[in-house]
Structures are given as structure tokens and as C-alpha cells.
Amino acid sequence: MKIKRNKITHKNKLRRNLLSVRIALITIISSIASIIAIEFGYILTQSIIRDYDEILDVDYEDSELMNDVMSKINKHEAIIFHHMVEQDPHERRKILNEEEDMEIRLQETMSSFEQNVRGTQYESGYHDLFSQVTNYLKNVQMVIDLSRDGNEQTANYYMRSVLAPIVRDMDELISEMENTLRRDVEDTKVKIRDNVGMMRIFVRIVLFILIVAAVFNVIYCVKISDEMVSCDMLTGVANFDNLIRVGEKLGKKRRLELYSGLAISIKDFKFINQEYGSSIGDRVLKEYATALNDKLKRNEIVARNGGDNFVALLEKDHVDDFLKSIMKVPVSLGEKMGLTLTSRCGIYQITESDTIYDVINAGVIAVGETRQSGANDFIWFRRERRDEMVRQKDILNGYHKAIDEEEFVVYYQPKVNLKTRTLCGCEALVRWIRNGELVPPNSFIPVLENDGKVQELDFYVFDRVCRDIGDWQRRGIQPVRVSSNFSKLHLHNKNFVDDVLSVVERYGADPYYLETELTESSGYEDLDAMKFFVSEMREAGIHTSMDDFGTGYSSLSLLRDIDMDVIKLDRTFLRDENDAKEEKMVENIVKMIHDLDRHVICEGVETEEQVEFLKRVGCTMAQGFLFDRPLTKEEFEKRLINPYYSS
Ligand code: C2E
Ligand code: MG
Ligand code: MG
After folding, report:
1. Residue 243, Cα to own-chain centre: how many angstroms?
2. Which ligand is nearest to the CA of 601?
3. SS3 content of the chain, % helix, strand, coil (to 5)
4. Cα of 468 to ligand 1 centre, how many Å?
5. How far is the CA of 438 from the centre of ligand 2 (A)?
6. Residue whose CA is at the smallest distance from ligand 1 atom 33
7. pTM of this prediction?
8. Phi, psi values for residue 312, rounded to 5°
9. How remote is the CA of residue 645 from the centroid of ligand 2, in Å?
């Protein structure tokens, strides 16, 4: 899969500017094209209207004039007829006078007609007609004159042989011109249709071009804005969402395992920001990001994950070279200033079952580890380590809900007097009922201890213990001494003693039935605090015990310095109960504890042989699966009521 990476900032800026220019250009071109289309349409329409007007004008005028001319000619014929028929001289004169007037008007009409058609395509046609009319009028005049002079016969002859053919010719000419006009009107109609069609095509083409341009522009805008959305605006490399998208795609194609996930950060970037200010800091980030980006292969990606944190997906065989190249990254801070940056990096070998989120978690945890003092700048992280980290995170995330919803439950594991095989005490052990499953403390106590949350949990358990003791007493059940585990972390708390006592007071619990277990300290740093705690507990009548005795390095000195009531031998003392040397050693340890006036109990007893061994070495108290596993409160109550163990 080809990974689409973002260009570095200045390129993106350039693209953004180009996009603006493009949008502006397309808008301007669209507007101009629209205006041209409209103008073109307008001009075309105007010319068509003009053409049409011309035809209509001429046609109109023409029909008016022709009617005029024809009516006059008809009138002439009538006059001439009258003139021929009417022999009354008075009547004849009247007609002749009228005739002269009419002739003058006809001349006038013709000259205005001539003006009207001048310069048009009809000029020559009308010219012929006019000359015919003129010719006709001239001959009419002649007929009139002949008639006036009394040459009736000649006038008659003229009328028939000269005037009649002229009238016929004129009729033909007029009908020919009418045909021409009709044809012209038809032609114009066709022209209009053609022009309108052309205009439509032109406007359609322009609109089509505009739509295509707009569509391309939208696609381009979407593409660019998509890239901008997926790019980190400060540095120009991909942003975190983009990397997630790429990772998910690779995951779907089952190609993610071909990559390694890297979480990268600039070493001591905080100081660069403090020393040079945030604008220089930003510049450093940009240059650093550019340097990372430039070192990528075609199918790789680096994204900024806020601050100076980057996450990258690199092909597995490219990781070593990439790491070498980012060991020292020179950046310039101006003309003369420059810095050489070093990097921290957590590298995670992606496996088949990893999602991009697993990869990022692992990388971030790994780079976090590089920050611990003395750690390497580059830390390789494997799946198991990541799983453990994820598990720990899960525990911490679920812890508060577990406290609020009382998912933690106290179990009690009996302690047994080996001589009498009766119940002589118990240890409170916490369990986490998580989603219906019972989670053993070893899987979450160390995590909570690392995070400091265990202190709250210890008091949660101690609280339930005090409450349960009171409850048993109220119900007439004889309790036994209950030991509660307390983390060594409490020793750093100045109020530890007060906190313990305030719980005891809250429930009015009898201190006789209480015991606090502290794990054997591995160092001397807690010695004074431990001493103080033990003496305060003694003062309050509460027993103290040293848990897991024999597992630390300073057991004997602790035994000397800290005056605890009970020493709990770790189950490692039961390694080989048939070994004579071992037996001697344990026997002496037990004797020493007794000599120091302390009680001793051994935990982890699973067999009768171990019981025999403990009896032989003088240890008379034991705790272990042989007698009971840790029990629920209800199960333990049955033990309190019937405290005997059969042998
Ligand atoms: P621990 O205080 O040494 O508790 C004894 C552990 O040994 C218990 O494991 C118990 O179930 C186990 N055990 C008892 N008898 C036998 C046996 O015969 N064979 C074997 N193999 N194991 C036996 P658990 O309950 O899993 O507790 C483990 C550790 O978790 C405890 O060790 C203790 O350090 C810690 N823990 C338990 N509850 C608390 C608590 O409330 N606060 C603190 N701080 N730690 C606790
Ligand atoms: Mg314990
Ligand atoms: Mg123990």
C-alpha cells in the first residue's frame, strides 16, 4: 500500500495559496464566461430583432404603399373609363382635375416609398416597380392629354395597347416582390431559429465548461482540505488521526506487521523551550519534523502526537538506519544559531495480532521508559512487555471503579496451632472480583504498589477486617487474631499510625484481635519508621508481624533491630524437609526467634511431612493449603465455630 504522506508545511502553504488563486481564477473566469454568454445572446437577439424589424417595416410599408399604388392605378382605370364613357364635358373636366391631384399625391407617395427602401435589399426591386409606375403615369398623362384634346380613339388605343400591358407588368412585379418578401420572412424565421439554436448550444457549452470546472474544483478542494485535515498545522507532517487511519488501513490489509512502530521525542525539548522561548521551540519542532519526514521511505509515515512527540511506522528493515540518522539532528535557529538535537525513541516490533492502537501504546510506553534515569535513549519493546504494560494500565484504570463499587473482597486464611491442630489466627487476603472473575492479589498488588494506590486498598481491607471482628463479636462468634497486610509504602506516611488507630476506633474493634503484617524490608531506609510503627502498635495492643521472613538480604539485622511480635517464615524454608542441613538451619532460626521472645509461624504448608518438619524444628504455628485455602467470610465463620483440624 502506498502511504499518502503530507508535504512539509511550506509546500502545504504553497498549495493552499495556489488553491486560493485557483478558486479566484475559476470564479473570475466563470463570471466572465457567464457575462460573455449573456452578452453574446443579447447581441444575437438584437441583430435578429433588427433583421426582423427591417422585414416587418418593409413589408408593412410595402403593403401600405402597394395598396395605395394599386388603388390609385385602379382609380386611374376607372377615371379613364369614365372619361371615355362620360361625354359630359363638365363631368370630364372634374374627373381630369381630380386625376391631376391624384397624380401629384402618387408622386409624393412614391418618393417617400423610395426613401423607405433605400439602402435595403429591396431597393432594386422597388426601383423597377417605380420606373414602371412612372412609365404608367406618364402614359396615363398622355391618355388624359389625348382625351382632353378630343382624340378619343388614340386615347383608347393607348389604354389598351400601352397602359394595359404596363398594368399587367406591374401586377407581375408586385406579386414577384410579394413572393420575395414572403421568402425573406421565411428565411429570417429559419435564421432566427438557427441563431437561437446556436445561442443555446453556445450557452450550453459555456455552462458545461463551468460545471466541469466547478466539479473539478470541488474535487480538488476536498482533496486539499482532506490533506490539510490530516496534516499537523505546526510541523506539516501527518497528524495523529492520519497515522491512525493509515495504521487501520494497513491492519485491514494485514500489512501492519511488516512495520515497526516508533514513538520518538526530542531529548530535553522542555529546556529548549525554556531557554529560547516558544517561537524558537516551534521552529525547532518544524525542522525536526521535517528531518524525520525526509528520512522516510515511500511507504512510511511519521505523525506528530502533540508537543515534541512523534509516532512513526517504518518498514522493519529500515529501522536501524532511521535510528542512526536521528541520533543527531542539526537544526538552525537563525543565521548564526544552530542546535544539534538528540532523540529518544521507543521501538515496537509489530506482530500479527497488533492493532495500530496497540502499536502506539507500546511505543509511548517504551519512549516513557527512556526517560527513566540511566535508561537508554532507544528502547526496543516486545509484545510480552507491552502486554504487561497494558495489563498494568488496565488494572490502574479499573481500580477506582473497583473501590467505589466494592469489587475488592476480603478472604481469610486460617493459621493453625500444630500441637493442638486448632485454629489460632488468620490472615486477611484481598481478592478482586472483576467482571465475575476472581483476580489473585499477586497480579494487581505490585501494580498498585508501584503506583502508590495500594495504601488506600490496605486500609480498605483493614476497615473490613475491623468491621468483621466487631460483627463476629456481636453475633457471639469467638474471633481469632486477624493479620492484615500493609505495604512498606505506608512507612513514608507520617500519619500511618494514626490512620490505623482511627479505623480501630471507628469500629471499636478489640486490638487484641488485630495484627499488622509488613513485608521484610530490603533496605535500611525504613528502619526508623518501622521501629516507630512497631512500638506504637505495641502501645495500642496491636500485634505486628514480619512477613516473608528470609526472602530479603537483611533478615537478621531486622530481627535484631525491629521488635516485631511475630515472624512469618517464608515458604522457601520448606524447600526440602528431608535435608538434615536445612533442618538444622531452620531449627536454629526458630530457636533464635523464640529466644528473642517472638512468635514464629510458617506459611505455605501443603503437606503433613512439612508439618512434621516444622514440629521437629520447633515451629508450632502454620498457615497453608494443607489446612485451608483463603476462605470467604462466610466459610471462615464456619471455621471459627468449629476450629478443629483432623490429622
Ligand atoms: P502473603 O502476605 O505472603 O500471603 C500469603 C500468600 O501465600 C497468599 O497468597 C496465600 O494464598 C498463599 N498461600 C497460603 N498458603 C499457601 C500454600 O500452602 N501454598 C501456596 N503455594 N501458597 C499459599 P495470595 O492471597 O495470593 O497473596 C499474595 C500476596 O499478596 C500476599 O502474600 C501479600 O503480599 C499480598 N497481599 C494480599 N492481600 C494484601 C493486602 O490486603 N495488602 C497488601 N499490601 N498485600 C496483600
Ligand atoms: Mg502476608
Ligand atoms: Mg507471606
Report:
1. 11
2. 3
3. 65, 15, 20
4. 20
5. 19
6. 485
7. 0.59
8. -135, 150
9. 22
Radius of gyration of the chain (CA): 58
Residue 516 backbone phi and psi in degrees, to 5: -115, 130
Residue 163 DSSP symbol? I
Q: Ligand 1 atom closest to Cα of 487?
A: 44
How much is the pLDDT for 376? 82
Query: Starting from the edge strand earliest in sequence, which strands make up the sheet with 378-381, in order?
Result: 238-239, 301-304, 309-315, 259-266, 343-349, 378-381
Ion ligand 3: residues, CB < 5 A: 547-548
Phi then psi for 301, rounded to 5 degrees?
-145, 145
- What's the gap in Å between 27 CA and the centre of ligand 1? 77
Which residues are CB-contacts of 426 (< 8 A; sequence separation ≥ 6)? 412, 413, 414, 415, 480, 481, 482, 483, 636
Ligand 1 centroid, distance to 485 Cα (angstroms): 9
Question: CB neighbours (10 Å) of residue 46?
Answer: 10
Average of per-residue pLDDT across 581-604: 94
Using CA positions, which residue lies closest to atom 7 of ligand 1?
Answer: 604
Q: CA–CA separation, 615 vs 623, rounded Å?
A: 13
% of the chain exceeding 70 in pLDDT? 87
Lookup result for grid cell 536454629:
588
Residue 606 is predicted with a pLDDT of 96
Q: What's the rounded Cα separation, in Å, for the pair 118 and 126?
A: 9
Q: Is 237 in the pocket of ligand 1 (CB under 6 A)?
A: no
Q: Report residue 8's pLDDT band, with 50, 70 and 90 as the boundaries.
A: very low
| Atom 37 (ligand 1) nearest CA | 429
3-class secondary-structure state, position 416: strand
CA 470 – CA 504 distance, rounded (Å): 10
Residue nearest to atom 13 of ligand 1 (CA): 604
Phi (first) and psi of residue 408, to 5 degrees: -85, 135
* Dihedral Cα 501, 503, 508, 514, nearest 10 deg: -70
Taking the CA of residue 430 as reference, the ligand 1 atom at the shortest distance is: 38
Q: How far apart are CA 45 and CA 592, in angstroms?
A: 123
Residue having the nearest C-alpha atom to atom 5 of ligand 1: 603
Number of neighbouring beta carbons within 10 Å of residue 149: 10
10 Å Cβ neighbour count for 334?
8
Whether 380 contacts 399, CB under 8 Å: no
Q: Where are the alpha helices (DSSP H) in 265-417?
A: 269-276, 278-294, 319-326, 356-370, 383-404
Cα separation of 448 and 439, whole Å? 14
